[in-house]
Write a structure and sequence with these properties.
Layout lengths: L2 H7 L1 H9 L1 E5 L5 H11 L3 E5 L24 H12 L4 E5 L18 E4 L4 H11 L5 E5 L11 E5 L7 H13 L8 E5 L16 H5 L8 H22 L2
Parallel strand pairs: 1-2, 1-4, 2-3, 4-5, 5-7
Antiparallel strand pairs: 6-7
Length: 243
């Protein structure tokens, strides 16, 4: 299955990718594409975490969002797709919310890579604080909404991210609470912030959207590139450790 990938990365990197344990929080517009890339590249042990179900408002940008999957748990639909890509993969689907109250349930110390693609500011901050106390490599997505230009998407260490409202809000929260991540970690972000030009109304039972204070516009190619970039950070780290 991965002969073309092994041709580029080499046998040692492929063996390492088959061994590492990865957990991905959030399989929406960013996380779903990240998961796809990881499994297609050779990651075999992947845990995907998301509490939501597919809604009609997801169809414009989320990998597993189809008219035929509306109403189904995102992690379950995505798990079936990932197993169809690699039936030998070990895919664990957890339909749960990550929060301060549930943090211990995820046993983050068991993973080699922790990927943050969470939308909620509070839960995102909690995950980053907790994950950075483990030995795992941590990578995170900053805000992917209101982006259109793929050439403005880049990677930087969290404290060096510029022009991203979500990164700024996270830093303000850490400073206000005087709690800081215990180590550095890389983020994918864009300093492009376009205005919403249209109007929006919830047209279905999208409970997660209904809980949001504000809904911002998104396009598929931007959130997918965020997700692919997250996956690339993991794959590149394995590659360079294997050379």
């Amino acid at each position: 299955m991965n002969s073309r990938t092994e041709l580029l990365l080499g046998k040692e990197a492929m063996e390492r990718m088959a061994e590492v344990r990865v957990i991905l929080f959030g399989v929406g517009g960013v996380g779903s594409w990240c998961a796809e890339s990881l499994v297609r590249s050779g990651i075999r042990h992947l845990t995907i975490v998301d509490s939501d179900c597919v809604s009609q408002t997801n169809i414009n940008r989320q990998l597993m969002a189809l008219h035929s999957t509306v109403g189904q748990p995102k992690v379950e639909v995505l798990r079936q797709r990932l197993l169809d890509i690699n039936p030998q993969a070990d895919i664990t689907a957890l339909q749960k919310i990550y929060s301060a109250e549930t943090s211990a349930d995820f046993h983050l110390e068991q993973y080699d890579y922790i990927i943050d693609a969470i939308d909620s500011l509070e839960n995102k901050a909690q995950l980053l604080l907790t994950a950075c106390h483990t030995e795992a490599q941590v990578v995170a997505a900053m805000g992917a909404a209101l982006k259109l230009d793929p050439q403005k998407i880049r990677v930087a260490e969290f404290w060096k991210v510029k022009g991203c409202p979500l990164a700024r809000a996270l830093r303000q929260r850490f400073k206000r609470k005087k709690e800081f991540p215990a180590k550095k970690f890389l983020c994918v972000y864009s300093d492009e912030v376009l205005p919403n030009r249209g109007t929006y109304s919830v047209i279905d039972t999208d409970t997660w959207t209904q809980r949001k204070a504000q809904v911002n516009g998104t396009v598929c190619h931007a959130v997918a590139i965020f997700g692919f970039t997250l996956a690339s950070m993991v794959i590149k780290d394995i590659y360079y450790q294997s050379t």
